[in-house]
Specification:
Rossmann fold, 16 helices
């Protein structure tokens, strides 16, 4: 559920129905959101308080406004570094908050049930009214009131090798981000932390050091792969819900990777397809003005929810990259107690 502000500033409720995503995205309300100018040919990055962001999709004005965001103790923030399992855990959180009502969940896309607070994409939504929100912001950029009011934070992390690979493919498939020239170039950027949302290790450790706070739950992607039911039960208890075993089982089935990938209300591919179409139209329009005929390269479509596996990094890291990364992880996480299953 989301809220779209009209020109008169009245709040109009937006709720996706159970049509196919491409039909839902044909609605005037979604078209308004997709008409944002972030889907343009040239991607410009900017730096805000030491962290890199794409200028059109995460604006300085939005980040600045978040500094005075008014949080509530009952709010639940789903937080993670990018491609750590955010969409997965946010659907778990949303399913629990909705009492495991799967019919209700499948009438509204997860991106609108748990909106992305720093994204310009949601600038037209009354995100402040939502009890569930998501963010990739590092701790020093999350609204200070979240910590002051002790809002609940569900933080999901993932072994950084797999996260790096997933982030690489996300940059390729996402038209609002710069496309890496090569895997090696992206690896170097990720390794150095010169990438959107900054150094992954600083992001991890900020929230890891809060893990003993009663309002913070630290979850690992690998634990979700190993025993999703146990994680659903942990999150449910953390959020203060008592749910029957049958409902828990239904949530587990609904939130399995296979189920979420084929569900248009949990897989954001439809949103990105629209973004690609918008960008293609702009490119063709510009080429037509210049009298140029474009020949589009053929490439395999990459899904937002690609594999959802542990250990896919082995298909990408060279021996030298793996050795360097292992030493780097040891250096950055030494003494923290934070470790990963690779």
């Amino acid at each position: 559920m989301g809220f779209l502000k009209t020109n008169s500033n009245e709040l109009r409720m937006f709720e996706c129905n159970d049509k196919k995503m491409e039909e839902v995205l044909g609605s005037d309300k979604i078209k308004e959101l997709l008409e944002h100018k972030e889907y343009k040919e040239e991607i410009v990055m900017h730096e805000y308080k030491g962290v890199i962001f794409p200028l059109d999709t995460i604006k300085p004005s939005v980040l600045q406004a978040l500094e005075t965001w008014e949080a509530r103790p009952e709010d639940v923030f789903v937080v993670s570094y990018a491609k750590a399992g955010t969409t997965w855990i946010q659907e778990v959180v949303s399913a629990i908050a909705n009492g495991g009502d799967l019919e209700k969940l499948n009438k509204s896309h997860t991106f609108f049930r748990v909106p992305f607070i720093e994204a310009t994409f949601f600038a037209g939504l009354d995100v402040c009214s939502c009890l569930l929100v998501e963010s990739h912001l590092p701790g020093h950029l999350l609204p200070p009131d979240v910590f002051k009011k002790k809002a609940r934070i569900v933080y999901v992390t993932r072994n950084p090798k797999d996260m790096c690979v997933s982030y690489y493919y996300f940059h390729i498939m996402n038209p609002t981000l710069p496309t890496p020239k090569s895997w090696n170039e992206f690896f170097d950027d990720f390794y150095s932390g010169k990438i959107m949302y900054g150094p992954w290790w600083e992001h991890f450790l900020f929230y890891w050091n809060l893990r003993h706070e009663p309002n913070v739950l630290f979850v690992k992607f690998e634990d979700m792969k190993m025993d999703l039911k146990a994680v659903v039960e942990r999150v449910s208890k953390f959020m203060g819900y008592t749910i029957s075993d049958d409902v828990i089982n239904g949530i587990v089935d609904h939130c399995s990777f296979a189920s979420m990938k084929k569900n248009p209300m949990t897989n954001p591919d439809g949103l990105f397809d629209q973004a690609h179409k918008k960008l293609d139209q702009q490119k063709k329009g510009n080429a037509s003005k210049e009298g140029v005929t474009l020949v589009e390269p053929k490439q395999e479509k990459i899904s937002f929810m690609r594999k959802g596996k542990v250990g896919d990094w082995r298909n990408h890291f060279t021996v030298a990259q793996n050795e360097a990364f292992d030493a780097f992880v040891h250096e950055k996480l030494a003494g923290s107690g934070l470790s990963f299953d690779f």
